[in-house]
Amino acid sequence: MSEKEGLSIIVKVVTRWIVGFVLLFGLYIVIFGHLTPGGGFPGGVVIAGTFVLLTLAFGKDTPLRKLNSTLASELDSTGAIIFLGIALLGLYFGSFFAENFLTKLPSSYFKLFSAGVIPWANLAIGLKVGASIFMVFIILSVTRVVGLPSGEKKMTRKPTGRRK
Amino acid sequence: MNVLPLMVALPLGMGFLIPMVSRKNRRTADVLGNLATLSLLIMSLYLFKIGNQIYFMGGWKPPLGINLVLDGLSAFFLLIVNLVAFIVTLYSVDYMEVYTSKLRYYSLFLLMLAGMNGVVLTGDIFNLFVFLEIAVISAYALVGFGTEAEELEASFKYLVLGTVSSIFILLGIGFLYSLTGTLNLADIGSKISGISAGHAFWFVVILFIFGFGLKAALVPFHAWLPDAHPSAPAPISAVLSGLLIKTLGIYPFLRIFYNIFGFPLLETRFIPQILMFLGGASMLTGALLALVQNDVKRMFAYSSVSNIGYIVIAFSLGTPLGIMAALLHTFVHATSKALLFLTAGSLEYRLETRNIKKMGGLMEKMPITGISGNIGFLSLAGIPPLAGFWSKLFIILALLDAGRLGWAIFTILVSVLTLGYYLRMNRYVFFGPLKKNLQRIKESPVFMTASMLILSLITVFLGVILIPHLRSIVLDPAVRSLINGTKYISMVMGG
């Protein structure tokens, strides 16, 4: 962690203290989404929030060392595919797409393992939302509009010479 | 296993799978993308065998859960969407090589396809809105895919106007929900007919005309289209003009106005006449503006505005012949306009310009592009025996049949304008003397020419859809599901 980037030492120390708790709280919201208020989406946003907090306090390199953009993109796709896979398993084991095919025992109500496929779907959504909101924030913070010598402004560049 | 949910799940899953597995080898993206669209095309053909079907997502019955509804109209639109999408992905194999990120292209393209299939299949109005947003948000990104200044500007303009239209639609859905207390299309239909249609109901109708009219680019709402469609990569222009404005603009009009609200109810307040007036304005404005364009793709974009006018005029007659003509023209315009945009992409790929004044005599240098371009022109200009002739003939016959002689003459006059701008463009691009700097131009690569040839063949032989046997499979069930009107409600709620 370079001392030059990011905000002041006070912010850095406080961030270092609370960032783990924020992450844990995000995970809690995801895992207990079917029992308490919350679920995959809000939990994923809180998880992405920890990375946003790291970026604000330490500059953009620190969170990217922990989770680079390729990995984030892959986690994003994995989350979506797991969710789709759960829905397809419903088609395979039950009779309808996205059917809740796991047994829901009345004795398990209000326990962690209840509600059939809902907790697993919440986990997939948490992964997807966390990774993609992190990606959105990173892309907003690393992309710059570059002024070319000709006075034109440009974001990224397509390779020249379109004819093969 | 039922294939109905797979029409949405397959492109969605493939859209997320492609960026994961094809980072190392970009050919994987080509293979997977084309396999996905090919299997969707096969499934959409198979759906004609099934007939009407209601599918309960997650096993929840209609008023509570989301259901997918397959009837003649859905099957017809699914065929158009997946046919053009398959040819377009085939074309992209070579064309998208000049852009940097092919796997993101396929990913966004398949998401857009999932959105369009979802809009056509769903039986829930909020679900329709969600799929519509999936399709347009992918489309915003794809319009700006080249990331040049002009493309980003067009994308931003499309984003702003598209969001405005989505807000109109969402507001309309909100009002409907407050009136009926349900979001299921069929359930809304059964409750709305019980309520004496008050001011709130007519406000919803007007909001839907604004919202879906903006998505379909009817004339007072068409400003985004001539920027967005030319700026996108050519295969995306083909999908936007050929499919997106119809599945997101025309299809919800047909479904909601015919099957949910019921046409007789709308006729009491002259809604069809308003739509007809908008359609006529689109036809004339699109054709006149297309006459003066020098940019190939911009001319085609204005031509799309004009052709949407034809479709709207035909279906707002409300007669069986009018509906048949509208659906036929939807199919014809989807294939012909996609073909024209692919041709324009082929020209741009080799010449690096879209200005028709800088082209000339290209028929001998790029024969396949030239022939497919000409087939597209002639079809949309309405020259027999190409498919465009039949659809325009049926539109004019339907207008005469409904006793609208003035509108019929107007339609014929606009067709002459259409022929005019295509002839002008043909003269500048494919005929006339070959320019000196174009001596070394070659024909486009094999996947591009192959897909143009396939689409040309389809455009030439699309007229066979009118042969009674084929017509009874493809076109008649679609027409019947609209003529039956609010029987859709009892079909969904009873099944």
What does this structure look like?
Chain A is mainly alpha-helical and 164 residues long. Chain A has one domain. Chain A is built from five helices and two strands, in the order H-H-H-H-H-E-E. Chain A has helices at residues 9-31, 40-58, 61-66, 69-93, 118-142; strands at 146-147, 153-154. Chain A has a two-stranded antiparallel sheet with strand order 1-2. In chain A, helix 2 runs parallel beside helix 5 (118-142). The longest helix of chain A is centred in the middle third of the chain and has 25 residues, at 69-93. The radius of gyration of chain A is 21 Å and the shape is flat. Residues 157-164 of chain A have low confidence and may be disordered. Chain B is mostly helical and 495 residues long. Chain B has one domain (6-494). Chain B contains 21 helices and two strands. In chain B, strands 1-2 form a two-stranded antiparallel sheet. The longest helix of chain B is centred in the first third of the chain and has 32 residues, at 149-180. Chain B is globular, with a radius of gyration of 21 Å. Chain B starts with 5 loop residues before the first helix and ends with a helix. The mean pLDDT of chain B is 89. The chains are: A mainly alpha (164), B mainly alpha (495). The A-B interface holds A 70, 73-74, 76-78, 80-81, 84, 87-88, 90-92, 94-100, 152-159, 162-164 and B 1-2, 5, 9, 12-13, 16-17, 19-20, 23, 55-59, 97-100, 146-149, 152, 349-350, 352, 445.
Topology of helices and strands:
The complex is a heterodimer of chains A (164) and B (495).
Chain A (H helix, E strand, L loop, with lengths): L8 H23 L8 H19 L2 H6 L2 H25 L24 H25 L3 E2 L5 E2 L10
Antiparallel strand pairs in A: 1-2
Helix pairs in contact in A: 1-2, 2-5, 4-5
Chain B lengths: L5 H16 L4 H25 L2 E4 L10 E4 L1 H24 L6 H20 L3 H19 L5 H32 L4 H8 L6 H18 L8 H7 L2 H28 L1 H5 L3 H21 L4 H20 L4 H32 L15 H15 L5 H15 L3 H25 L16 H16 L6 H6 L1 H9 L3 H8 L1
Antiparallel strand pairs in B: 1-2
Helix pairs in contact in B: 1-2, 1-4, 2-3, 2-4, 3-4, 3-10, 3-14, 3-18, 3-20, 4-5, 4-10, 5-6, 5-10, 6-7, 6-8, 6-9, 7-10, 7-21, 8-10, 9-10, 9-13, 10-13, 10-14, 12-13, 12-17, 13-14, 13-16, 13-17, 14-15, 14-16, 14-18, 14-20, 15-17, 15-18, 16-17
